[in-house]
Write a structure and sequence with these properties.
Keywords: Signal. By secondary structure, this protein is of the alpha+beta class. It has one domain. It is built from 4 helices and 10 strands, in the order H-E-E-E-E-E-H-H-E-E-E-E-E-H. Strands 1-2-3 form a 3-stranded antiparallel β-sheet, with no helix packed on it. Strands 6-7-8 form a 3-stranded antiparallel β-sheet, with no helix packed on it. Helix 1 runs antiparallel to helix 2 and helix 3 runs antiparallel to helix 4.
Length: 242
């Protein structure tokens, strides 16, 4: 999937579980997210685009499709309103280089920029964190329909796992999770005179909750703030390959 001029972005993927990245990479992701957001501010539904490009246009999510116009096959942005009082934003990924385009609120977007720039870490450390493999292996060689079904299964398995987590859960720096419907990121903090790793809870705000969602066009899942209705819808779309 391509996006105009800067980076490949992953639709619906806010945080892709992969190897951890340094604070410098995460901060760069935040800079790229803001740069891309500014670029999108100049776009309209009639802006030129390449097929499968995604963007934010006037606060709505937009994806470029081939359509027939005046008898010709052309590329046009299809506007998809976020709904529920949400707006389209570009967000920095946490555990890999890049950005994502999704629907959320401005409070959540600003919080994610702060997280990427290290405002929730006491020491700035970036200890290695490699998540365990998902219950069902996925690779880019499988068909899209099968890939999306596996992603949906893994998203539900991770949701079930997170339901057992507490704020006191042992964790590694940069590990992320949903704890009691709240987004959580593990950071090194000073406690009783010692540096320890603890989950820092970061409320989604705006009536949103933390969810695990399946990625659309690549193997993996994403952890983001949305609604339960949206989570169920994404799982259903993934399993029906919509």
């Amino acid at each position: 999937m391509k996006v105009i001029g800067i980076l490949a972005v992953t639709l619906t993927a806010l945080v892709t579980l992969s190897s951890s990245q340094s604070p410098e990479v995460q901060s760069k992701n935040a800079d790229l997210a803001e740069e891309l957001q500014n670029k999108f501010d100049s776009l309209t539904k009639d802006s030129e685009c390449e097929e499968d490009n995604v963007a934010c246009i006037g606060g709505d999510f937009a994806k470029c499709h081939k359509v027939i116009e005046n008898g010709n096959l052309v590329n046009k942005f299809s506007i998809q309103p976020c709904g529920g009082g949400l707006k389209c934003f570009v967000l920095p990924l946490v555990l890999k280089p890049g950005t994502s385009v999704t629907c959320t609120n401005e409070e959540d977007r600003n919080r994610r920029l702060d997280v990427a720039r290290g405002k929730f870490s006491a020491t700035g450390k970036s200890d290695p964190f490699v998540p365990p493999p998902p219950p069902n292996a996925c690779n880019e060689g499988v068909g899209k329909a099968e890939l999306r079904k596996i992603n949906a299964d893994n998203a539900e398995a991770l949701t079930a796992k997170f339901s057992t987590f507490t704020p006191a859960q042992a964790c590694q720096v940069n590990e992320i999770a949903c704890i009691g419907d709240v987004f959580a990121k593990c950071a090194t903090v000073l406690k009783d005179g010692k540096f320890v790793n603890e989950f820092q809870l970061q409320a989604c705000g705006g009536g949103l909750i933390c969810i695990v969602a399946p990625l659309v066009n690549k193997c993996g899942t994403s952890i983001t703030c949305s609604t339960e209705e949206d989570r169920i819808s994404r799982l259903d779309q993934a399993r029906k390959n919509l």
